[in-house]
Amino acid sequence: MAIHNRKKSAGLLLYRYRNSRLEVFLVHPGGPYWAKKDEGNWSIPKGEYFEDEDPLPAATREFREETGCEAEGPFLRLTPKRQAGGKIVSAWAFEGDLDAAAVQSNTFTMEWPPKSGRQAAFPEVDRAGWFPIPLAKKKLLTGQRGFIDELCSILNYDPSGEDEPGGSEGLAQPTS
């Protein structure tokens, strides 16, 4: 039996070019804790994986679960990053496109409101969007921002002359 390792996650950083500008795809976590949090709280689609599981297939599975879309490579391996809480996130970047407004996430169940004894279902992802690099770095969790820097370096892309506005967010619809 595999032991679930809560210290490792794997995810995918989807990117595209729009009008010669690099954009990345990010998701906003669902549930009541995250509902009113925005800047510094978005993430790449990712999730935990089992100790005996290969992280790239886990990353593609998590991408599918959080977006409802299949990820197709080739995938560029990025350097794993240690998050503030100690979790190690492995990530791969890939070029592609999807409609952020059409994202459909799986759901999770938790007691809500706290100590009420009632269970409520929430989407893992409640919003998704495409963001130019300067805005993406503001939206993204601090511990994941290095993935964007590394992607820009790999692609030889310099976002320093970009203005920040222009994110195109979509609303992720929870699956039933």
Fraction of residues in helix: 10-25%
Q: Segments where pLDDT lies below 50 for 5+ residues?
A: 1-5, 171-176
Main sheet attributes: strand count, strand direction, barrel closure? 7 strands, mixed
Average pLDDT confidence is 89
Strand content: 35-45%
Number of E strands: 11
Taking the alpha carbons of the first and last residues, their distance comes to: 30 Å
Using the CA coordinates, give the radius of gyration: 16 Å
Structural class call reads alpha+beta
Basic shape: globular
How many helical elements?
A: 3
Give me the strand/helix succession.
EEEHEEEEEEHHEE
Short overview:
The protein has helices at 55-67, 133-139, 145-154, and strands at residues 4-18, 21-29, 46-50, 76-82, 88-95, 104-105, 107-111, 119-123, 125-132, 168-171, 173-174. By secondary structure, it is α+β, with helices and mostly antiparallel strands.
3D architecture notes:
This protein has 176 residues and is an alpha+beta fold. It has three helices and eleven strands, in the order E-E-E-H-E-E-E-E-E-E-H-H-E-E. It has helices at 55-67, 133-139, 145-154, and strands spanning 4-18, 21-29, 46-50, 76-82, 88-95, 104-105, 107-111, 119-123, 125-132, 168-171, 173-174. A hairpin with a 5-residue loop joins strand 4 (76-82) and strand 5. Mean pLDDT is 89; it is low at 1-5 and 171-176.
